[in-house]
TrEMBL record:
<dbReference type="InterPro" id="IPR009057">
    <property type="entry name" value="Homeodomain-like_sf"/>
</dbReference>
<dbReference type="InterPro" id="IPR036397">
    <property type="entry name" value="RNaseH_sf"/>
</dbReference>
<dbReference type="Pfam" id="PF13565">
    <property type="entry name" value="HTH_32"/>
</dbReference>
<protein>
    <submittedName>
        <fullName>IS630 family transposase</fullName>
    </submittedName>
</protein>
<dbReference type="InterPro" id="IPR038717">
    <property type="entry name" value="Tc1-like_DDE_dom"/>
</dbReference>
<dbReference type="InterPro" id="IPR012337">
    <property type="entry name" value="RNaseH-like_sf"/>
</dbReference>
<feature type="domain" description="Tc1-like transposase DDE">
    <location>
        <begin position="183"/>
        <end position="318"/>
    </location>
</feature>
<dbReference type="InterPro" id="IPR047655">
    <property type="entry name" value="Transpos_IS630-like"/>
</dbReference>
<dbReference type="Pfam" id="PF13358">
    <property type="entry name" value="DDE_3"/>
</dbReference>
Amino acid sequence: MGRRPSVFVRPVTMDEGRKLQRISRTAKDPVKLRRAIVVLMSAQGQTVKDISTLMQVGEDYVRDVIHAFNERGFDALDPKWSGGRPKTISDQVREHICLIARTSPADWKITAFSTWSLSKLAEHLVKYQVTAAISRETLRRILRAGKVSWKTTTTWKASTDPEFIAKMHRILALYDTPPTDGRVICVDEFGPLNLMPRKGKAWGLVRRPRRLRATYNRYGGVRHMLAALDLATGKLYYRIRPRKRWREFLGLLKTLRARWPGEKLYVVLDNFSPHKHAQVRAWTTDNDVELVFLPTYGSWLNWIEAEFAALRYFALNGTDHRSHGEQNAAIAAYVRWRSARAEPKTAFAPDSPIRSWTDYPTKTA
């Protein structure tokens, strides 16, 4: 058998050469990149054998690319995906599978288990003739394509407060348009603060997590942080005490009252019993302090909760303080750092659905 004649790409213009070079440097698709390099090398005079050796491809592949470019030009560089074999499971059946996966086995009078595994779900689909025998991998892909994923079940505690909407709107009004005759203060307790190693996140070498000691006992008792967030300045004020009774809470209110004399204080707070103590109510009435209570199970409406989350993340997580003095110093350092960068608090959840609530939702997604 004689030697096959050498095949070369047709003569390319200067602009075509530049375009081939650009594609060979920037193409993201590996097929297009490989084809462009083959054509470019052939245009430079390299033989099919040399190209196949350098590119680690077959000579027939090189000839096909060159012939295709000679016939169709740059269109030949783009891969034409065939899309694989036709689907054996229709779109309607796939949608049905996703709907069944979102149900509970109890909905089908199955009491042996409370949740589906892929194998159990596959057996169920075959039993009810939804589909023929189906592998777990195929089922996993169908669920993934249908945006059905494996999720952890969470709880939701709905508010039982009949005045939820009215109280929420009152608090949102204070946040959105602070009164001109005073300032809005968000108050809450943080803790208990005990002495223990706290899990956290930190940069470290791969597969070498930072280790903290394990403890079996809690020594030194606990402390409680009573804090107030001034929305006008964004600054956080706090005190740490062994207990959080009405006496400690009243002491915090007196400190706030002394800090802003002559201004009415609108104090947003939850329904913790010391907040409603008779002596606390009497003192606030006599000292121009209005207590604005959150609706029950509505602590997420208290702006200070986000500050507590940041304090826990940056000042406590990943630490192992051996004394309350050491832990209190870490909290104080963080609060000083934060206060130096504080800005007025504005725009509380501006795009949240709560803004359009007229009734408390009875169901959650």
